[in-house]
Each structure stands twice: as C-alpha cells, then as structure tokens.
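Work Package 4 report. The design task specified in the project plan requires that, given a folded chain encoded as structure tokens, an amino acid be chosen for each position. We show below one input record used in the internal validation round.
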C-alpha cells in the first residue's frame, strides 16, 4: 500500500521546547522588526537580545535535545534540499516527513545563522544620538563598519525569509494537504502508519528530558544578560 493510501495516525514530532522556541521567536522577531521601523530603540534592543538568547538556546537544543530537534536529524547538503523540492513540488503530493525535511532543515540553519549575525550587527550599531550598541566602538573599524552598514539589509533579508516560510506553509496546506501549523502547536503530526512505525523504531518520537531544556534555557538567558552587563557597564 502506498503512503498516500495508508490511514493517518498521530505521531509525536515536536517537543515542547521546540514549540515554545518557535512561537516566542515569532513574537520577538515581529517586535524587533516593528520597533526597528518605528525607531523605538530601547525596545528594539531588548527584543534583539531576546532573539540572541533564543538562538543560543536553539543551538544548544540542536545538540542535546529531542531527536527531531537535533541538527544531525535534519541538516543535509543543499543538493538534498534541491532534490526534495523538485520531487515534492513537482507532483504536489504530501511529503510526510517526520521532522524537518532537507529544505526545511536548511531554512532553520539559515535563520539561526542570520539572526546570530543580525544581533551582532545590532550590538555594533549606533544612531549617533541616543543609542550605542554594547559592541559599538569596541570592534575594529574593518569589522564594525560593515556590520553596522548592513544591519537594515539583514533585517529585510530575514523578513523575506519569514514571508517565504509563511507562503510555503500555506502551499503545504492548500496543495499538499499537510497542516504544518497544527504540528507546531500540538506537537503531533498526522502521518501514514508506515512512516509512524519507522519513526518509532528509530527512536525519533522520544523526547529529551525536561532538565536538559531548563539547563539550555538558563545558559541561553545568561549569555545576553552577561553581554549587556559586561559591555554596557
């Protein structure tokens, strides 16, 4: 029986830390981008530091978290992502991936890297009036100048990636009949029984202990707090 004809069953996919990270990231990014446009620099800085903490958490959780959260589970070469996109959208059939597919994994990696770069560029920026980032004047000019110059450009690139992400989610729902939003809310995906069985047998449905997430969260909160206290004092 093909996967498309199999009955669908609920399968654990996204653990609570991943889901909390995702939705807090959405809110923090929206606040950061809006305050950048309105020039509310204090709130812009605070939301940027929240994003930095979230990125630190995601990197740590990508190393020690649940199977579907780990980079080893979803990071693939770009050729694998291109092959997935060609095969998947060429036929508009459900993908039924347990976790990030090859293209989605690269998107996660790109967002993590760009947000990390964006937060550093923000800390190196100044408006020459009321706001100086904690790294402003502390880095050599050959590094701080391009970081500050491209801060707004990076923000627009990130916004474009976020909009692309939303468009892809809508296409999945309308054309591939996959509800990615539901999975990120409840943590469970509707997958064919054979896919669910493979995920369970490989250990992919097991969650990491909560104490690991708490340690990662504590470290993630400490990083921006330490940077602020050390560099702004």
């Amino acid at each position: 029986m093909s996967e498309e004809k199999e009955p669908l069953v609920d399968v654990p996919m996204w653990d609570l830390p991943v889901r909390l990270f995702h939705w807090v990231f959405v809110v923090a990014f929206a606040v950061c981008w809006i305050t950048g446009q309105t020039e509310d620099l204090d709130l812009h800085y605070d939301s940027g530091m929240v994003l930095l903490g979230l990125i630190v958490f995601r990197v740590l959780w990508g190393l020690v978290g649940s199977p579907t959260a780990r980079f080893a589970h979803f990071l693939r070469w770009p050729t694998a992502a291109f092959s997935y996109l060609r095969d998947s959208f060429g036929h508009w059939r459900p993908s039924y991936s347990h976790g990030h597919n090859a293209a989605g994994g690269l998107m996660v990696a790109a967002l993590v890297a760009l947000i990390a770069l964006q937060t550093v560029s923000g800390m190196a920026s100044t408006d020459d009036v009321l706001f100086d980032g904690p790294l402003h004047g502390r880095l050599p000019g050959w590094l701080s100048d391009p970081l500050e110059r491209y801060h707004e450009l990076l923000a627009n690139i990130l916004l474009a990636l976020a909009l692309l992400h939303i468009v892809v989610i809508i296409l999945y729902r309308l054309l591939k009949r996959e509800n990615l939003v539901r999975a990120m809310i409840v943590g469970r995906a509707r997958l064919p029984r054979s896919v669910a069985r493979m995920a369970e047998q490989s250990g992919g449905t097991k969650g990491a202990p909560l104490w690991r997430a708490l340690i990662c969260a504590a470290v993630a909160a400490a990083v921006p707090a330490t940077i602020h206290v050390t560099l702004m004092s």
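The longest helix spans residues 151-175. Validation will be extended to a larger panel in the next phase.
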